[in-house]
Structures are given as structure tokens and as C-alpha cells.
């Protein structure tokens, strides 16, 4: 972009770094980029770090994963183990399992790398999920960021796919049982299920092809797609600039924070090393996936208390919760001579399907209900969007019930309760939990909003009790300074938009539905405090006390 | 929706009854004044912070050294013990953690304590400009016009047809990922071979089981005779043919019509592969005669021919008909009378074929 300006010989850089930068710049024109990004402003908040954790975990996954590929052999050919782990010496197993054992026991640092890789994978999915919760609860998915929300949702699915394909690679007993379950779920798919199973496994389960096929997906296809999505994701962050929390000096037309260079870059860059360091500590002290304890895959044995990696848990839990013969009625049905395995199909597909469908479409649902098509760059505090927050918590509770169900046997043995009772309770919570979550969250959010109004209008409680001349005792409330008050009152509070006729003067059924939802969203909203209300609040006779506070008091 | 639009208790005397746009709002006071840090005002504090940062970087160097020492000084040898591995893993981890955390915390401390911490405000720019949009629309229109695709529908339609069909080979080429299922899932190794009945043998060593070895209350994990000698597809066959063998008091069994001869003296054999999604039903509760699948807790009642009494499975476990041969060993008199394991689309058809 600045190629023509190199004709001017006048500029000579003073430092070595400057000369080097000039060398590069005069050949590729980097000064434009530096000018754009060097001082780009980024808002700062602890909750913005989850996305960074996800990105850094992914980088660590690439680094540690590359190391592992140098030693791992994804073959399912049979071999007899002759490595240095004594208890398994001479045992018949696949080459994949044997090479995983060799990585753990015969390659220096190999176990460490395996541990870092597995912990980083768990952290990667977790941080993506928590990052999405942050984005949801603060309303950061609103225009113009709806597409980036979709890219993020795709990333969540890809992260789970990467995790699951990698989890199966060592071909140990635990992951083999995981594949067995996947095979059972695939076979329940109507019409094509049996064929998909045979094509995926290269014949009957377990066959000799699945590990090398998953390996190709795990080290090539899935990470490439994740990388592509991350590039898109960050590209859009640059276009949109980051959102910011509400507060004094912040509005939809500006972005308040620290410049990229040096402060923000230093903090974010330093944070990469911190994430790496924490993962290294976990890898050093907390064993994850000790495959040598499980033994090679064999379709006959299984250990009690088997658990998938955490992110698959909610599907496994849903499988457990589904009754196969509720009230004596067989959920599996034979219709027209074919088997409909609803006891597997429904729990495997429906809850995950609902969660992901709502997740992908939520920005458009809310935009339709609120008729709000403006750009939003200032976030909502979760309490200031009570219905959205309640919806999010309801979904989260629903997810957690299913997730807990994946550990129903461990809950039963750990707390010495009946396994059947745990399942019955979780089945009930599956339906009631989200409703309770919704109601409680909405009430809490509204209560917090009223508390905010109270503090904004009457100041904060100081704990100091004062006796007035006529004998009355009151607690002194210290008024807030205008910056703190603005944080409590400076938010948008959408209102119910009643059904409106279209251009033909007709109120359509869809519009009525929208109006119904709008009422459901906003009918019991709490409006932010206004200056007039503050004025009125001061008329209650607090002046005497506040005046005694001296300089802290505000004048009107 | 005016009257309760403020949502606060009625007696609070609030006034926000009109639409919110008409209500006066608080003025934005702007970014709060910058507060100086200790290191900004006190050169001593700044010097102290500087030394702290340097110390953290120094700790990182120590961490790197720990890693290198642990890597080279600890010899795994030929049969490394778990303790050595554990020690090396811990030291490599500590080394890496110190090396990384030293750099990370050092940089962050440097940024927070010593670099300028003035919050600045930057204007956001429009994501697109109307001028650009119009120019882009013009360009697209021109491009479409120059291709002439609107004026020549023949070209457009044949192109659409060709492009729609072109991916088919890309799908078809995956046809050899696996063989056709046919009725492979319907048969197991238990089918008698050349008129010879298969013996029930112990998993994993493959020794045959005498009926007299099976005492009341005992349970055996069973594989078919000859499984261990298979050269190919051993796991595939094992995944279908593993069986649980148990002996109960014959009076507690209630065989249904046609199954009276499937057991021997209270000894019964059932498929170990769960009818839910295929985990091994490996837990046998001797007292209650229940079989429990550890994956999803489907529970089967042995006294009711392994009917599902709890959990997500919907079908009973298939029973393997057994008898005793001349030498007193247990044998399977036939294959299972239905496909074992999880349900699949063609399962019912296969079951009908087996029994016809």
C-alpha cells in the first residue's frame, strides 16, 4: 500500500530494530498494518480471557500433538507388547495401543506430552463453552456479531469432534467401549444406520480400520477446520472491534480500553505463558487417562464407573436417562418390518439437537422479538436482561442434569444411595430443573436490578447509625459518585412492543406470536433510575444526613 | 404498558410512566479520572517492581534448567519403573511450569505495574459505507451483465444441471469404505460347524467348561470354542459371541414355551452384549439374579429370561440354547435365535429369517 513512497530517500531509521522494520516495510508495506493495529484499543475485563484461554489451549494442542504424531502409530494390526511396562508384557494388543504405551513409558517426556495434550484438550472445550456462556449472558451475540456467534458455535462442535476422535486413538479398553456406544447409536439411525456403521468401521465393529480413519480426521481434517474457523472468528473480531462492558465514558460509538501496544499485547501475550504453565502443572501432578490401567480393547470386559471425557457426558447422560420400557411400553418399535430404536435415537439426537438449534438461532429469535436491529457494542450486565439470562440458565441447568446423569453410578456409589433413585430424580429434574432455573434466575435478576435502583437513588449503606436531634435513629447512606452511579443507571431497558399491523393494516398471526413473546420477555421489567427519581428520593429528608457527610454529597 | 413499566414497588413514587425515550436519562460523566499507581509516583516502588519482573524472568530460567536436568539426568532404562516415570514426569512438568509461568507472570506484572495504564477511547467506524456498497452493487451488476447469463438461459440451466450432478462421484467413491452389511450381524460363531456343536469355553483362555464345574450361584465369562485360534477378525467375532453363563436353582427359572430345553439343570447362557448400545453386560448380582450394564445401567432379570427391569434397554438379552455333550462339557445346540447386540434397521427381518 505504501510501495510508491519508497522513492523518497529521506527516512533513515535510528535503531537496528527500526532499520529491520523499515527493510521489511519497504518490501511488503507493513506500516499500514502497524498503523492500524499498533495502538488498536482493546477493552479489558477478566471475563474476556476465556476466549484467549481457548485460543492458547489450541496452540498448545498443536504443539504437543505434533510431538505425539512423531511416535504414534495408528495401526490396528495385532502385536505382542514388549515395552518396559511390566504388567502388560507379552499381552496381545493393537499397534496403536502399544505405541501409546511406548510414548508413555519409553520416550522421555512422552508421558508429559500426552498429559499436556489431554489436559489441553479438556481445557480447550471447556474454555470454548465458558466463553460462549459469557457471550450469551452479556448479549455480545447481537448485531453486528450474529455471524461470529455462529462461527463460535461451529467451533464448539468442532472442538468436541476433535476431542472425541483423539480420545479414541489409543485403542484402550475405555475408549473402545466409547466407540462401541457410538456404533450402537449409529446403528439406531433409520434406513442407513447399519450401512453407516459398516462404512465407518470398514465392516463389522470393531474391525481394523477405525483408528487410522479417526487419526486422519483428528490430525488433518478437524484441526484444519478449527484453524479456518479461528481465523474467521478473529478476523470478525478485528472488523467489529471488541465489545465493552457498560460504564462511564463507554457507549456504542466508542471503544474504551488499553492500546494493543504495549499494555494489551503484553498482558495477552504473557497470558499465553500462564496458560501453558498451568497446563504443565496439571500434567505434572494430575494423571489423566492412564491407559496402561485399562488394558487393550476387548469386547468382553468393561470396568464399572466408566466415564467419557466431560464434553461427551451430556449425550451419554441423556442415553442413561431414557427409560427403555416406561410403564411397560416398549420404546423400541417394529413398524412395517423395520426397527425404530427410539430408546437410543431420541436421547442421542433430541436434547443435543434442541440445544444446538436454540444456540445457533438465538440471536435471530431475540432480534425478532425485540424488533431491535441496531448495532450493539456495549454489553448487557446479565441482570439487566433478566429473561435472556433466565433462558440461558434454564438451558445450562438442562445441560447439567444430563451431564450429571453421565455419572449417575458414581453419584450412587459415592453418596451411598440407590442407583435407581438417582436416575428417577434426574429424570424428574430433566423436566423440572430448567423451569426452576428459569424462575429463580429471573427473580434474582429482577431483585438485583431493584437493588441497583435502590443504591443509585439512596446511596450505599455505610453501616454508620446516626441519632437525629429528635431521637430518630437512621443508617447513613453515602451517595455514589457520578461514575459509580452511571454504571448502575446507564443501561437500556427494552419494553414490550405490542402487536403492530403490517402495511395492509392487518395484525398477522406471526406478529401476535411475536407480541406474546415480547410481553413474556419484558412485561415485568425494572426501568433504570432517572435523574427525576433521584431528585424525588432526595426529597425524603436525607439531606440533613447527607449534608453531614460534607464534601461527598452531590449538589443539584 | 405504561403503569408497571418501572417494575418497582408502587409506593416508591417513581415517575417513569411514559415511553423510555421521553424520560430524561442520566448524563454520561465520561471516563473516570486516571488514578496513579504507586510505581507512577514513587521511584522506589518502580524500582522494586522492576526487580520483581527480573526475578520472575530469572525463575523462568531456573525452570528451563530443571527441565533439561530432568530430561538428561533421569535414565528410563530398559524396564523403567513407574516411580521413575512419575518422578521424571513431575520434574519435566515443574520445569515447564516454572519456565512458562515465570515469563508469563513477569510480562503481566511488567504491563500492570510499569507500562502506562491510561484508558483511551477510540471511535468505532461504520462497518460499511454507503458509497462502497453502491459501487460494489454496480460492479456485481456489470459482471453479471458481461457474462450474459441472464440473456442465455440455455447456458445457465445446463451449467446448473452439470454442477448439481458433479458431486455425485465424490459421494459414490466412498462406497468402498466398508462391505455391505448383508446379514453379517445376524450370525455368530456359535452356529454348529459341520454338524459339530461348539463348546462353551472360558474367556480369555479358551478352556472348555464342564457342567459339573458350574455350581449354583457361579457365573462364567464365556467365548465359543475356536475363537482364540482365529487368524482374522477375532475381535469382530468376539464382539458378537461373548456369553454369560450362570447357574440358578432350576425352580427360580421360568422358561417360556419353546425354551424349556435351552438350559441344563438350572444352567443358562445369555448374550453379554447389551441390547441398548452394545456394552458388555458384565455385572452379575448373585443375590437378586440381576445383570447390570455398567455403561448405561440397563438391568436384566435372569429369572424372567433377562427381561429389562430398569434402564434404557428395551429388549431382553438373547438366550443361547445349551446342552451337555458325551464328555460332560457344555455345548451350544444352535446359534442365537435372534441377532445379538444393539438394534438396527434390518434386525426384525434378520430375526424372522433365522426362525423360518
UniProtKB/TrEMBL annotation, chain A:
This is Cytochrome bc1 complex cytochrome b subunit. Keywords: Membrane, Transmembrane, Transmembrane helix. InterPro entries: Cyt_b/b6_N, Cytb/b6-like_sf, Di-haem_cyt_TM. It holds the Pfam family Cytochrom_B_N_2. Residues 535-556 are annotated as: Disordered. Its EC number is 7.1.1.8. Residues 535-545 have a biased composition (Basic and acidic residues). Residues 20-246 form the Cytochrome b/b6 N-terminal region profile domain. It is an enzyme of class 7 (translocase). It comes from the Bacteria. Its cofactor is heme. It catalyses: a quinol + 2 Fe(III)-[cytochrome c](out) = a quinone + 2 Fe(II)-[cytochrome c](out) + 2 H(+)(out). The chain crosses the membrane at residues 53-72, 118-137, 149-169, 215-239, 271-292, 344-365, 385-404, 424-441.
TrEMBL record, chain B:
It is found in: Cell membrane. The chain crosses the membrane at residues 53-74, 90-111, 158-175. Signal peptide: none annotated. SUPFAM superfamilies: ISP domain (SSF50022). It comes from the Bacteria. It is a multi-pass membrane protein. Pfam families: QcrA_N (PF19297), Rieske (PF00355). Its main location: membrane. Keywords: 2Fe-2S, Cell membrane, Disulfide bond, Electron transport, Iron, Iron-sulfur, Membrane, Metal-binding, Oxidoreductase, Respiratory chain, Transmembrane, Transmembrane helix, Transport. PROSITE patterns: RIESKE (PS51296). Residues 267-331 form the Rieske domain. Iron-sulfur subunit of the cytochrome bc1 complex, an essential component of the respiratory electron transport chain required for ATP synthesis. The bc1 complex catalyzes the oxidation of menaquinol and the reduction of cytochrome c in the respiratory chain. The bc1 complex operates through a Q-cycle mechanism that couples electron transfer to generation of the proton gradient that drives ATP synthesis. Belongs to the Rieske iron-sulfur protein family. This is Cytochrome bc1 complex Rieske iron-sulfur subunit. It comes from Pseudarthrobacter enclensis.
